[in-house]
Amino acid sequence: MGLTPKYSGAMVLGVRDCMAQCAYCQTETQLHYGGTPICVKCSEEREVKRKPPLTQNEIRRVLVDGIVKATARVSAANEGFSATMSQFPSGLPHPDGVQRIKNASHELSAARKEMMRAHQRLNEFIDTGVVPDDLKQTG
């Protein structure tokens, strides 16, 4: 029942063997943060806002870190989806199983979109030098 994968220095997201309800929006999820069930959407909303970096290397590091985090979410969501699907060996889920499959599929889809966006942000920065708005210096 261990937690996987490491999300960031202070934040650990993991996948558990059974579905739980997100502590914030009550949707089913297998992701956990510090033992508390949390869905991808609520996790994103509660992520601590960072201070914008100053140098090109810091911007690149933040963008690469975004890819690492997004990839970890995809991995966790994929494990959750696989675990959900493995609960139905005949391939025919019981009535509430259909909703569980939809929830796991939604989490996986959202995580994949996030990962694609993280790659796109880094590629745009490398190709054009354009700093994403959320990383630009203010003030």
- Report Rg: 17 Å
Strand order of the largest sheet: 1-2-3
Decide which structural class fits the backbone. Answer: alpha+beta
Largest beta-sheet details? 3 strands, antiparallel
Total helical segments: 3
First-to-last CA distance? 46 Å
Tell me the strand percentage band: 5-15%
Name the descriptors:
139 residues, alpha+beta, three-stranded antiparallel β-sheet, 3 helices, 52% helix
Short description:
The protein has about 140 residues and is of the alpha+beta class.
Please specify the SSE layout and strand pairing.
Layout: E1 13-21, E2 28-33, E3 36-37, H1 40-46, H2 56-86, H3 95-128
Antiparallel strand pairs: 1-2, 2-3
Helix pairs in contact: 2-3
Task: Describe the protein.
By secondary structure, this protein is α+β, with helices and mostly antiparallel strands. It has one domain. It has three helices and three strands; from the N terminus they run βββααα. A three-stranded antiparallel beta sheet has the order 1-2-3.
